[in-house]
Known about the structure:
The complex is a heterodimer of chains A (114) and B (113). Chain A has 114 residues and is mainly β.
Amino acid sequence: ELKVEQNPLFLSMQEGKNYTIYCNYSTTSDRLYWYRQDPGKSLESLFVLLSNGAVKQEGRLMASLDTKARLSTLHITAAVHDLSATYFCAVDAKRGSTLGRLYFGRGTQLTVWP
Amino acid sequence: DAMVIQNPRYQVTQFGKPVTLSCSQTLNHNVMYWYQQKSSQAPKLLFHYYDKDFNNEADTPDNFQSRRPNTSFCFLDIRSPGLGDAAMYLCATRRAGGTGELFFGEGSRLTVL
């Protein structure tokens, strides 16, 4: 079974600071997804990364994928309180297919304080 | 407009009393998933359907069953809920051949008394 590890699991950061969340996975995959979840809510798609070297940016968040290292990063620039949420990465277990199972990391609970 | 709709949003049941959760989608996606998410944990895949083909995860308890009568609807039946089944149940869809992105419903939160 594919293992997906995120770190850190808990992140408390001051507004205006930068930080990176890491997502490592155990088997070959060329599809990785980042989701955001607010307390008591469902998951909202943030980024879809479909190839080695893919980089996507939206506002203060930037995600990248290195399939050779089996690593994705979610970089936060100049954090603001509205970014407080739990962030999950998810990896497609079957390479080159959209029919595979999506496995989630444990999530990174981000709190941004003034 | 909501594209993946789950009902009910909140369900309270008694220990051992069967529960059915429903999911409908307007995206015409051929793949549908049920995930279980407990507090502060990652979503855990229970089943998925590719069209009518049913795929059960090896560690999904027999207490959980699923039905997909047509493309738009999928049901999760919990035959005899235990206290450990209290969780958020998330339905998601994806289109085969697309980016593989999952679209989630708002979830159904199950409480077992």
